[in-house]
Amino acid sequence: MDRPFSRERFEEVPVVGILRNFSRSQVEMIAERYAAAGFTTLEITLNSPEALPTISSLVKKFGDRLNIGAGTVCTKKDLDRALDAGACFVVTPILDKAVIKSCVKKKIPVFPGAYTPTEIYKAWSLGAAMVKVFPATGLGPGYIREVLAPLNKLALLAVGGVSTGNVGAWLSAGAKGVGMGSHLFPREFIEAGRWDELGDFFSGFAKTIRDYRETIHFSS
């Protein structure tokens, strides 16, 4: 790991941007505008083309401005490859004890995927920095609020079903952050190379989140 994960940086705009199946050159163009807009955290999924060299390149070019992590980490082998590439945090779609414990031992923030209250609590007990509630699409923000009623010490990251129109509801429900993919990275801009429009979109959305955080007095 070349650069450690910055929790302070993440909390400025508590969004994990999830990039999947974009080319390496597209990702670098995206990252430049993403950072310029004030976003701070990017996840490259390992099932994307050239995922590992993309992570390495992003760390070298943007590691002083962005938390660069690896997603879709399902095995210890995946984890080792991701860390060798320079990822400073790890996201999983599942609850894998070996991956979590290895991250904890190495002091790498890990956001494991969990769905039920039992899975969520187990992930937290194993040492998750945040628990990725996934897929949150059919659960809704109310689920976050209900889980946190008895388990208010947990830090939850809502992933799945989060859009520019409802992100405030997830944060208001108590999520410490959200993960966003297609709603944050419009393919019509990226595939057409409309980079200025993408940058404007990022800037507007980042401002919306900052303003909303101030309204709800968001805190860690």
Question: What does this 3D model show about the protein?
Answer:
The chain has 220 residues and is α/β, with parallel strands linked by helices. It contains ten helices and nine strands. α2 (24-36) packs parallel to α3 (51-62) and α2 crosses α10. The protein has one domain: TIM Barrel (Alpha-Beta Barrel), CATH 3.20.20.70. It starts with 6 loop residues before the first helix and ends in a 5-residue tail after the last helix. The strands form two sheets. It has a seven-stranded parallel β-sheet. Strands 4-5 form a two-stranded parallel ribbon. The protein has helices at 7-12, 24-36, 51-62, 76-85, 97-106, 117-126, 141-148, 167-172, 187-191, 195-215, and strands at 15-19, 41-45, 67-71, 90-91, 110-111, 113-114, 131-133, 156-159, 177-180. The chain is globular.
* CATH-defined fold name: TIM Barrel
Major sheet description: 7 strands, parallel
Oligomer: single chain
Helix content: 40-55%
Order of helices and strands: HEHEHEHEHEEHEHEHEHH
Which features characterize this protein?
single chain, 220 residues, alpha/beta, TIM Barrel, 9 strands
Task: Write a short abstract of this structure.
The chain has 220 residues and is of the alpha/beta class. Helix content is 46%, strand content 15%. It has one domain (7-209): Aldolase class I (TIM Barrel).
